[in-house]
Amino acid sequence: MTTHLANFARPALLLLALALPPGCAGKGGEEFAELPSAEELYAEGLELMSRERKLWIFDTADYEGAVARFQDVIDNYPYSDEAVLSELRIADAYFSQRRWDEALSYYQEFSELHPEHAKVPYSIFRAALCHSRQSRDSNRDQSATKEALAALDQLILRWPTAPEIAEAEALWRQLRTKLGRHEVTIGDFYLRRDEYQSAANRYRSVLNEFPGLGLDAEALYKLGVCYSYMNREDEAQSIFEVILNNYPGSDVAGAAAGLIPAAN
User: What is the pLDDT of residues 97-140, one digit of tens each?
Assistant: First the structure.
C-alpha cells in the first residue's frame, strides 16, 4: 500500500516541479526575488534624483528611474509614510525637469489629499513656483502670475511660520510688482492713444492696489500728465507737488518740476 501511494505521488510531484518557475524548482535553487521595502525603494528614488551635475552643465540625475521607484512605493506600500512622501518626490522630479504642469498637478493633489501633513506648506509654495515659472512678461497676459499669488496668499495667511515663508514673501513682492507693472503698461497704451481717462484709471489702480512696490512715483507722474491733458490742472499740480516733496532728486521729480509753473 505504501509503495502504491509513493508511486502515485511521484507524477504529481513531478508536475508540481515542472509548473514552478526555474528559480523555485528545488530547495537549493534560486528563490523569488523579494520586493525591496518601502524605505529601500524610497531611498533608491532619492539617490537617483540627487546625482550631481557633471561640470555644472550635464544633469546626470535619473528622473524617470526615480519616478518609477516612487511609484513602486505608492503601488506596493500605499499606507506607508514613504508612499505619501513619494507623491511629493514625484512632483519634485517633474519640477526639476521643468515640467511645470505635471509637477503642479502632483503638488496640488498632495495638498488636497493630505491637508494636515507637515509638508503641505512646501507643496503649496512649490505650486506657486510652478505658476510663476509660467508667468509671462508684464506686457502679456498675467493669469499665471495671479494663480501664483493666490497660492502664496494662502501659504502666508495659513502658515506664517513655515520654513518657506521668507522665500514666499520675496516671490510675492516680485509677482505683485509684475502685476503693478502690467497695469502701468496698459495705462501707457491708453495714454499713447490719447484715451486719458482710461489711462488715468490704470495709473490710479497702481497707486491703490500696488503701493510701496517702487511704482508709485511713476504712476503719480503719469496720472498728473493725464489730468493736465484733461484740463484738470489743479489736480495735476497737486500731484506734481506731492512728487517733489516725496521723491526729491529723482528723475520723476525733475520731470514734475518742469510742469509746475511756480517751480520754473
Answer: 999 999 999 999 999 999 999 999 999 999 999 999 999 998 89
- Residues 33-77: tens digit of each pLDDT: 688 999 999 999 999 998 755 445 556 789 999 999 999 999 999
- pTM (2 decimals)? 0.81
Is the pLDDT at 172 greater than 70? The verdict is yes
- CA-based torsion, 240, 242, 244, 250: positive or negative: negative
Average pLDDT (202-231) is 97
The cell for 81 is 509614510
Residue 204 identity (one-letter amino acid) = R
Mean pLDDT of the residues in the chain = 88
Of the chain, the end-to-end C-alpha distance in Å amounts to: 128
pLDDT at 33: 66
Residues 122, 164 contacting (CB under 8 angstroms): yes
**Whole-angstrom distance, CA of residue 67 vs CA of residue 44:** 10
Instruction: State the Cα–Cα distance between residues 242 and 219, nearest whole angstrom.
Output: 12
| 136 contacts 144 by C-beta, under 8 angstroms | yes
Q: Is 141 exposed, middle or buried (0-12, 13-18, 19+ CB in 10 A)?
A: exposed
Residue 39 grid coordinates: 524605505
3-state SS assignment for residue 120: helix
Question: Using an 8 Å Cβ cutoff, are 67 and 60 in contact?
Answer: no
| Total length of the chain | 264
Q: Which residues make beta-bridge pairs with 58?
A: 54
Helix runs in the chain, H state only: 2-19, 38-49, 63-76, 81-96, 100-113, 120-133, 143-158, 165-192, 196-209, 216-229, 233-246, 251-257
Q: What is the DSSP letter of 23?
A: G
Q: What are phi and psi of 53, to 5 degrees?
A: -75, 145
